[in-house]
UniProtKB/TrEMBL annotation:
SUPFAM superfamilies: C2 domain (Calcium/lipid-binding domain, CaLB). InterPro entries: C2_dom (IPR000008), C2_domain_sf (IPR035892), Synaptotagmin (IPR001565). Residues 1-85, 99-252 form the C2 domain. GO terms for cellular component: axon; dense core granule; plasma membrane; synaptic vesicle membrane. This is Synaptotagmin-1. Gene3D superfamilies: C2 domain. CDD domains: C2B_Synaptotagmin-1. PROSITE patterns: C2. One of its GO terms (molecular function) is calcium ion binding. The chain crosses the membrane at residues 20-42.
Length: 261
């Protein structure tokens, strides 16, 4: 049996493994080990620690027994956490396929000027939306074998920002389009005028869209921020308001788009 610990989302694949000696008697295992991950303070609230338990088999594929996911925003990191948790079933192949990806951006609000600054930094592991992988191609040549076409593992993503009040969009902005990638890097900044007496009433929708020159561009997923948000999105918005004039960066997991009525 062995354990794998991994902080998600991550910019590069980082994990640590603990292998238990075979002489440990099942079903109880006693161990005391330390693991260390370097995580910038600004990114802690957006991280989830995943602990996976595997059954080791020398002659065949290792089977995952279960896993535990601990959102770091849900615990007090100033104190040591000691508790028992039941293992959740391993993630299925369909669940892995339904992952939409992650996006990192910073928020900064200046109350005196009523300026909301959003810096879109990057996105990782975006879900490919084009089955044929022809996003952004505006023609079909007579001899396609003589031309290069992006493969199905790529997309042409851009990020759309919508500032909403009472369900109505009052301002929108978008990044440039990054060609043929599921891991785009932007580092693009945008500013919205939001008076201090309105900051509690607005919400910001950050949507990642796969650009398509031929047909309709398809949204991959989104993050909704504001005082009525939940989870990591609410924590990010609250941290921004609690730290005026200071940019607060955080990773977010993209959520599914609402169904059109």
């Amino acid at each position: 049996m062995y354990f794998i610990l991994r902080p998600l989302p991550q910019k590069k694949k980082t994990q640590q493994k603990l292998i238990l000696p075979s002489f440990f008697p099942p079903p109880l295992f006693f161990f005391f080990f330390f693991f260390f991950f370097l995580v910038p303070y600004a990114e802690v609230a957006g991280k989830t620690l995943v602990m996976m338990v595997y059954d080791f088999d020398r002659f065949s594929k290792h089977d995952q027994i279960g896993q535990i996911k601990v959102p770091l925003s849900s615990i007090d990191l100033c104190n040591v956490l000691e508790e028992w948790r039941d293992l959740s079933p391993p993630e299925t192949d369909s669940e892995k396929e339904n992952r939409l990806g992650d996006i990192c951006f910073s928020l900064r609000y200046v109350p005196t000027s009523g300026r909301l600054n959003v810096n879109i930094l990057e996105a990782k592991n975006l879900k490919k939306m084009d089955v044929g992988g022809l996003s952004g191609v505006n023609f079909l040549p007579l001899y396609p074998s003589l031309f290069f076409f992006p493969t199905a593992s790529h997309a042409d993503p851009y990020v759309k920002l919508s500032l909403m009040v009472g369900g109505k969009r009052i301002k929108k902005k978008k990044t440039t389009i990054k060609k043929y990638t599921l891991n785009p890097y932007y580092n693009e900044s945008f500013a919205f005028d939001v008076p201090f007496d309105q900051i509690q009433k607005v919400h910001l929708i950050v949507t990642v869209v796969d650009y398509d020159r031929i047909g309709t561009s398809e949204p991959i997923g989104r993050v909704v921020l504001g005082c009525n948000a939940t989870g990591a999105a609410l924590r990010h918005w609250s941290d921004m308001l609690s730290n005026p004039r200071r940019p607060i960066a955080q990773w977010h997991t993209l959520q599914e788009m609402p169904e059109k009525s």
